[in-house]
Amino acid sequence: MFDLLVSKDLSEMSEEELDSTFVVHEDGVKKFLGRIPLGCIYATFLAGLYIEMEKIVGRAAKGLILSASRNRGKIAGSAIRRRYEKDHGKMNDKKAEMIVKNMVTIWGKCFGWGKIEFERGDEFRVIVKNSLEAVGFIKIKKRGNHPVCWMLLGYTWGLLEGIFARRFEGREVRCEAVGDERCEFVFQTVG
Questions:
Q1: Is residue 5 domain-resident?
Q2: Residue 24: which H helix or E strand, with range?
Q3: Structural domain of residue 29, as residue ranges?
């Protein structure tokens, strides 16, 4: 499974193909790559959790979720990089980009995080339609006044940093929860 993840562009594979390749269904538990347990949650649960956190700690809720998600994404990205380099030698930027694209494809098609696309120009862009986080907020509160895809932004940000082994700056520039047609994240290399 891992070798397929790091060897070819998976973006054209169907949800069914990706799920049958990367998700093992065993004793009522789904496991990504056969070892990392997955769980489904209601989008409204996640949004409700964010709303309750904001009531308790105010706007610091975003920083807490973003920081935790970024840290976990960086751990995952670093682990992918280490394993790749152990098995295949030094990872170049083109390979790192393909792996990030594969990961966000799997998040969208297998994990239900939204319809996700990855683009590379002068910066990295991740475009999400029907973001799990934004959809939850829309269902609970209708429209909000600030972007809310903190987990997906942070996790993607950390994944980039871990896989590329360098720092990035990231921000959400569009969000369905505030009325935009899609959610969009922009990442730029620092330094």
A1: no
A2: strand 23-26
A3: 12-189
